């Protein structure tokens, strides 16, 4: 029987995880992006010099991995709110750090806590985006790199801590497109220069101010959200996702040494 040409024939080219070393897996190396390919890690997504996000044209997710154990991730997603369907909130997240392969098929991502960033903007409930430091370790229960036989392009399937699949990502760059892998810690240079504007391109109504990053204090995440939008269910939904994601989610406060 000849398989339909439309059938994506998937060859698993790499599932093996190194048993002993913290070195990377050659199959992971590169920059991966979801279907739209508009979200790509690196300087086109996060500008560490000016400490600000560059908003992509479309939502998506991107991960990059090096051969020597570094990773970078970029998320840009709309969050629809049933009460204001015409006016979705948007969230951008950026992290980088190291990854390890503990040898059981899992992929463990450990971010550099001081460097992660998150911007949440709710165009209808506020003119100002909420810009905070962000740190969330991630456990991918398993991963696989396959060749999508139909599109003839390498595809990365990541399975979250609970085994549920993430959106598939496709290889868009080798070597990976990443910011420097060491600690950037741009906060020290992030003297507030006044409010910055972020242009929304998703049909939202115009510009939104991006606040200068404030160092997070204890409970800053919930406190800031509570102060801003106590009753915005989006925020609590995301907070819930964050808190249940790993059991080890940490919105860590930078301790000023
Ligand atoms: C693999 O090992 C890591 C680290 O010990 C652990 O967190 C993870 O849950 C393990 N994965 C599986 C699938 O058991």
UniProtKB/TrEMBL annotation:
Residues 180-215 are annotated as: Disordered. Residues 1-24 form the signal peptide. It is a single-pass type I membrane protein. Residues 200-211 have a biased composition (Basic and acidic residues). It comes from the Eukaryota. One of its GO terms (cellular component) is endoplasmic reticulum membrane. Residues 180-191 have a biased composition (Polar residues). Pfam families: Rot1. Coiled coil: none annotated. GO terms for molecular function: unfolded protein binding. GO terms for biological process: 'de novo' protein folding. It is found in: Endoplasmic reticulum membrane. Keywords: Endoplasmic reticulum, Membrane, Signal, Transmembrane, Transmembrane helix. Required for normal levels of the cell wall 1,6-beta-glucan. Involved in a protein folding machinery chaperoning proteins acting in various physiological processes including cell wall synthesis and lysis of autophagic bodies. Belongs to the ROT1 family. This is Protein ROT1. It comes from Exophiala spinifera.
């Amino acid at each position: 029987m000849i398989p339909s040409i439309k059938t994506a024939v998937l060859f698993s080219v790499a599932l093996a995880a190194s048993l002993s070393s913290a070195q990377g897996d050659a199959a992971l190396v590169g920059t991966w992006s979801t279907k739209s390919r508009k979200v790509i890690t690196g300087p086109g997504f996060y500008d560490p010099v000016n400490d600000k996000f560059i908003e992509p044209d479309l939502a998506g997710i991107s991960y990059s991995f090096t051969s020597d154990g570094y990773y970078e991730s970029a998320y840009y997603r709309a969050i629809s709110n049933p009460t204001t369907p015409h006016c979705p909130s948007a969230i951008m997240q950026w992290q980088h750090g190291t990854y390890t392969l503990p040898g059981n098929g899992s992929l463990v991502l450990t971010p550099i806590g001081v460097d992660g960033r998150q911007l949440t903007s709710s165009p209808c409930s506020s003119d100002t985006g909420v810009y905070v430091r962000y740190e969330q370790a991630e456990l991918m229960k398993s991963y696989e790199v396959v060749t999508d036989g139909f599109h003839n392009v390498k595809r990365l399937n990541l399975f979250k801590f609970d085994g549920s699949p993430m959106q598939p990502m496709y290889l868009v760059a080798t070597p990976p497109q990443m910011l420097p892998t060491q600690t950037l810690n741009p906060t020290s240079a992030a003297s507030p220069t006044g409010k910055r504007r972020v242009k929304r391109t998703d049909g939202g109504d115009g510009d939104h101010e991006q606040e200068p990053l404030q160092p997070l204090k204890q409970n800053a995440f919930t406190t800031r959200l509570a102060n801003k939008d106590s009753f915005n269910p989006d925020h609590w939904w995301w907070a819930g996702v964050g808190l249940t994601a790993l059991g080890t989610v940490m919105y860590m406060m930078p301790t000023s040494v």
